[in-house]
Amino acid sequence: MRPRRRATHRVLEVLALLLIAGGCTSMNTLDVGYPAAGANRATLGSIAPLRIEVGPVADRRVDAVRIGTAPNDGKDIVTSRPVPDIVHDALVTEIGKNGHAVVTGDKDVVLAPEVDEFWLDVVTGYPETHYVGRVAIALAVVNGRTGERVLVRRYVGIRRQLVEPDSVDARREVMDTALARTMRDLATDRALVTALSRLGQ
Amino acid sequence: MRRVAIVSAGESRFAVLEHSAEPGRTFDEILKWNTYGPLFRPLAVLVHQGVNWLVGLDRAADTAPDGGAVSPPLIVANALARALHASGRFEEIRALVREPVGEARRDIDAIARVTVPEWGLMRVRAGDPALVSAFADVRAQMAVPGTGVIVWDTSQDVTGPERLPLQSFKDRRFTRQQLVDLLERAGQRLASELLYAKGVEP
Fold first, then answer.
1. Would the N or C end of chain A have less CB density within 10 A of its end CB?
2. Is A121 at the interface with chain B, CB within 8 A?
3. pLDDT means per 10 residues in chain B (202 residues)?
């Protein structure tokens, strides 16, 4: 009898922990990211592999504290990780997926990114809610050997979606897609790829 | 797929969408005090949609570019063709206003058909004043002529990066420029998605 009771206790403990964890997941905290599974080898992967250093992402957002405001209670909408880290990881994923080595030592290229906007607008309609997610990043391409800045490109990914009812998953998906669109625009940007290929020679 | 024809097709509806919560929310406030309130909610939703449709119709008449001045699918198709051509990944890209026939059809590997079911202005930020952006819902489907096999199919919501009060769009010349820029952006967006989906050989 005793081992069975102990097992029951263990199951109840796990269930209680799951409930607590679920209760702590706020509607206003979004786990935004760019999963490697969604990334593809695109135009960026059509050139010879390079050693690329992705510099720290400069946060140039007007409001760096939050990524939006909840319409019902006015509370801040935030990401579970710092926005510069999310953008940095997305860049590393995209560059790696395209066959280049992300390095910190000897390098052919340094990418100096900045995030200008990372914002979710929530417009309350009836009965649905309208989301507009925006991610704007700038990317400077620097010669890894000379330090010369050779190109600056800007990418803006926007996703809008009507949702009923309002949900944390829908909010996150809107921001995930906006981020993914910036990465896709970057990975298929001919000007960026041309500049990178010159630095590899 | 080295030789691709891009055909603009279909009708486009110009709309001004506000996604307003009123008067629906007020109806809900009134109905919640009535025992039979829930029974009337579907009617409230219908009246809400009807009122906003009429308001949108009025605003669309005030802001829409002159009839025939802008062809959304044509602008998107041309921008898509330019972006694909610039990518260097295709041998030949042709933008057409109608389906290719005869020899022209035999010479191509795929036909991409571009439609823009809806475009116009949309409220993207609540507040006073609310902010509005140009938008277009675009669709592209690429098929192999002869077999009809669909090799690529996408729907994209495209939104202008600029956010302005609706009042700014009273200037029709300005509105036209914003909308044309947005449609060009839509063509580039489709190109990015196609190039990304096409990938490259490792």
1. N
2. yes
3. 92 86 72 75 75 72 73 96 93 92 88 96 89 96 94 96 92 91 97 89 53
